[in-house]
Amino acid sequence: MIDDPAPPRLAPLRPPFEPDAAEQLAKWMPPGVQAEPLALFRTLQLHGELALRMRPLGAGILGRAATVPPRLREVMIDRTCALTGAEYEWGVHAAAFAAAVGLDETMLASTVSGSAEDGCWDREAAAVMRLAEELHEGSDVSDELWEELSALFEPRQLIELIVTAGWYHLIAYVCNALRIEREPWARRFAGV
Hints:
By secondary structure, this protein is an all-alpha fold.
């Protein structure tokens, strides 16, 4: 985690965008949102071909075809982002999605500096927190946790949770290594 905001290592695209870039950036943003595309998306668009290939997976994790309930998906995302020090992405999700899916301030704080053992989590969310932690620490899942997860989730959901953790590790690498400039409206770790 980078405590002092350092300048971005690569300047994101700035408007006015070339028509192709504008079209691709619009696809990264939720339908109907008129805000400027996020700094992360504008930075990824520096490599338009790669961004074009990445977007379907990110959209699939957050989209309607997802099988994991949104609240549990956000627990996985927020815990993974916190573990990887990706304050940019954690802050975007904490500001944009947490309240809508029922994550309160205690839960958000737990994703940053707590654990699955915190009393704010129900059984499913605690298992997702542990899954994020085990994947982060060892890139694997213990047999004990797998048995618990298998009793709580369908196979498709298990795969989706693991892929979500992997996707947000990738996003953490991009955010941290490129020092993506924070969104002014996003939450900060210190604010929980």
